[in-house]
Specification:
heterodimer; A: alpha/beta; Rossmann fold; six-stranded mixed sheet; four-stranded antiparallel sheet; 11 helices; 10 strands; 37% helix; 24% strand; B: mainly alpha; MetI-like fold; 2 domains; 14 helices; 0% strand; nucleotide-binding (chain A)
Chain lengths: 279, 357
Amino acid sequence: MSTAEFEQSVVVLEEEFSTPAQRGPVELEARDVSVWFNTRKVLEGVNLQFPKNTVTALIGPSGCGKSTFIRTLNRLHELLPGAALAGEVLYEGEDIYGPTKDPVHIRLNIGMVFQKPNPFPSMTIRGNVLSGLKLSGMKRSNHDEIVEQTLTSAGLWNEVKDRLGHAAGELSGGQQQRLVIARALAVQPHVLLMDEPCSALDPASTLKIEETIRELSKEITIVIVTHNMQQAVRVADYTAFFLAAENEPGHVVEQGRTTEIFGNPQDQRTLDYVNGRFG
Amino acid sequence: MTTTFDPATLPNLQQQKKMHPWRKRTTKFDVSVAIAVAVPMVFVIALFLFSDMPGALVFVIYLPIQMFASGCAAVATKGNRGIVDSVIIVNAVGASIFTFVVILSVLWSLVSNGLKALSIPFLTQNSTYISPSTPLEYGGMAHAALGTLLIVTISALIAVPIGIATAIYITEVRGKAVPYVRFFVQSMSGVPSVVAGLFILTTLILTGAINTSAFAGGLAYAVLMLPTVARTAEEVLRLVPDDLRTGALALGSTRARTVLQVVLPAAKTGIVTAIILGIARVIGETAPLLMTSGKNDATVTNPFSDPISSLPIAIFENVAQPYPDAVSRAWGAALILMVLVAILFTVARLLGRTKVK
């Protein structure tokens, strides 16, 4: 992206999010989240708010705990051996780690798309899209409609509409990734977490997914981990910069509007990172 | 300044033909290989024809001679670095041929001896009123084949669900008792088959709980089949990538649904293999059946009431008789057992084919 284009996108975003009123209520919030794997502390004191119907990008060098953090937001972190956590994650004002909370219910509302496309190999394209409904026990009658609608949102409909009965494994990597996005959308989550969803994709597929993200953010809250800084600028309303010193737990160095983080960062390390001087 | 692709500047492009430059060999290479193949062969054949050495010994010394010859050829064409390659290749090919020969001889002895007994009555009749000296034209093995099928079906109905459930406990539930469960499953696979029969005999048959019957035989077989199914199923479930489990859980799936609708379907072919291996483990076992299902010359269809014959027992009974016809019956029964196994495997493979739905 050239400087002129960058400036232009900054202007567009500033216009879109210039007043605090547009920020809306906070849907998801992390309070003092610290994370351990066995005895190793990998994340320390993360405080982040994710306003309703916005896109927040988590950026930072590899190994700073972004992916670990995003997995704490829908209780997938606890599935890893040796996992421990302190702090709170509030979804609609309630701690998702509360004793009465059911992780299955949480994950139904807070969906996730992973770095590596993981369509279910034993199911067809159509079966994959509908798998969330089946797996979560949701009863819906308008299956055809859901398949078309979610695949259209994920930018895949035109490519697969004539072979919905084929195995999902036949699709290319980029198509598989858009398929799992459609799959995540079919259960109508309120929040969608995306862990580097475009890292394995070509520029054209990436662009399609970014369009999808912008489109979806009108209705749902999105948190996206990305190593691609231009991507953060293109899709995110807010950005949080994570950093971990050597053998230290990672933490959020700076957070705020994407325009501020990229245009006028307060911390020297953020400035260096967003300008590609390290990381 | 960059260069772009322009076919016009490459006039030779039209004349290019498909080649396989990596297949090119020098004459020296061809000659060395030919000598390395021919000399040991001629030497061994000569030994076999003109010396008193027994044939088996000639076969055994062939491998080192061939290895030496190949080593010389390797040095001649590739220098010292070729020696290791040639030794490994000769050994691998030699070992494969040896295995192949062994399997073929077993099959051949089975088919050549068993075919003598095979006839329509042999496949459809039982052995009532048949004594070891009765000619081959009378009586058959249908009752024993039915017995084996009954016993194996019963044991599979018991051992397969328990075995798969055990594997799911180990790989999917990952509960606290996993190390102990694995330890016991592993120990169970070391239980001698005769002990499994003895166990059912003393605990269930002698106490009067059940009769000597197909059901008792199935129980003894199940004890043997369970660890094989559990361990193989565990291995294949472990191969299912964690991405799929996390992916399902991220969609709001419960653990049970994740296992039933994502993990097991993804491992379907492997699970079928586990079942096949379990059946293969038991189908020829004779010792446990001697104590649990016994023998019966008549056809039995009730799996709970009476002693029942099975193919391994029929082989065991007939093969030691001093009458050639009885021995032929044993071979025939063995052939039926083999064919039965082949049919079971084919059917299982067809069912286990990955079909996406």
